[in-house]
Write a structure and sequence with these properties.
Elements (H helix, E strand, L loop, with lengths): L4 E2 L21 E2 L14 E3 L17 H4 L29 H16 L9 E3 L6 E3 L4 E2 L4 H12 L9 H8 L9 H8 L3 H25 L5 H14 L8 H12 L9 H17 L7 H5 L3 H11 L9 E3 L6 E3 L1
Parallel strand pairs: 3-8
Antiparallel strand pairs: 1-2, 4-5, 5-6, 7-8
Helix pairs in contact: 2-7, 3-4, 3-6, 6-7, 8-9, 9-11
């Protein structure tokens, strides 16, 4: 497979990462897309254990006549009904540890084409966002890399990476910055469990936490639903602008005349959400984003395939191939 990695990410600027407005990117591998829910020979397997099984129909619209009052799912129908599983979460928006691992692996495949979390990844993609690194593709020009490095400098002040805090602040503010050697310093730091834990904490605070809260607020009761919002937060940001995960949720609720919290069927709601997300990727608000996001629709293709197959509970193993190579989650 020949692939290219491109990323768009609006800059944080002086506001800093905590505001969460237009803060994300799309590190995208442009190649063949698709997903198979099978255990493929030669697929890369990471981890073990599965997650609780679940029920495809989520929400009160079990009566076909009631379901017909809402918009039809945006996902093409497969032959026959999806497998029935007890997919409802005990608490809306909350994943168990196995489901969270699958969700993290799914995002890692979308970001790095590898289900193993890539803490030591670092690369200058030449996309105008500076250096991209770590498990969520933190960028030197966006501010989230600054947050990771600043936290690490507090616990490892003598590390090579700690010396880049001031330069990363300049980069996040849009000023010139000398980041020579940062790539090697990042890789060395990735061998430190404290640095890996800091990356996890920043992802939790800036991306997974807000996505899970948004899922809970809209009554999503499937692991796949939470994972869909999580991946969208990583790529689109957690602000309130048109292209953000919140903006897409708002338009989905408008199109569906409500959310699952108000009784809308969750499968139909997720299908519409993914259709709205695809529209953003194909026609983003910023012209500078158009090429990179247009090449990232494999993320939506893969999530739509999971939805068609009824994999609402994220039961391992799942095999996904958004960029052309099968990767096993589990």
């Amino acid at each position: 497979m020949t692939s290219t990695r491109t990323r768009h990410r609006p800059l944080y600027g002086s506001a800093g990462p905590a505001t969460g407005i237009r803060r994300r990117k799309a590190r995208l591998v442009a190649a063949g897309v698709g997903l198979a829910i099978v255990v493929g020979v030669g697929a890369v397997v990471v981890g073990a254990a599965g997650s609780p099984a679940g029920d495809v129909r989520v929400g009160p619209a079990a009566d076909p006549s009631a379901a017909a009052t809402t918009s039809a799912p945006a996902v093409p129908s497969s032959t026959g009904p999806p497998p029935v599983r007890d997919a409802r979460l005990a608490v809306a928006g909350e994943l168990d540890p196995d489901q969270r691992r699958i969700a993290d692996q799914l995002v890692s495949v979308f970001e790095n084409d590898n289900p193993a979390i890539q803490y030591d990844y670092v690369e200058d993609l030449g996309d105008g966002r500076g250096i991209t690194a770590g498990r969520a593709g933190f960028c030197s020009g966006c501010g989230d890399m600054l947050e990771v490095v600043r936290r690490y400098a507090e616990v490892a002040p003598d590390s090579d990476l700690a010396g880049y805090v001031s330069e990363l602040k300049a980069a996040a503010d849009g000023d010139d910055a000398d980041l020579d050697g940062l790539d090697a310093a990042w890789r060395r730091a990735a061998a430190d469990a404290r640095f890996r834990a800091i990356q996890d904490a920043v992802v939790e605070q800036f991306y997974f936490g807000p996505a899970a809260a948004l899922a809970a607020g809209n009554g999503l009761r499937t692991a796949l639903g939470v994972a869909v919002l999580y991946d969208t937060a990583v790529q689109h940001g957690t602000g309130s602008d048109h292209d953000s995960v919140r903006g897409i949720v708002d338009r989905t609720n408008e199109a569906m005349n409500g959310s699952p919290a108000a009784g809308v069927d969750e499968v139909a709601w997720l299908g519409t959400f993914l259709g709205q997300r695809r529209k953003v990727l194909e026609n983003p608000s910023s012209a500078a984003t158009a090429k990179a996001w247009g090449e990232s629709t494999g993320r939506v293709d893969a999530l739509e395939a999971l939805l068609r197959q009824g994999e609402l509970a994220l039961v391992a193993p799942l095999v996904v191939s958004p960029w052309g190579t099968a990767r096993t989650l589990g």
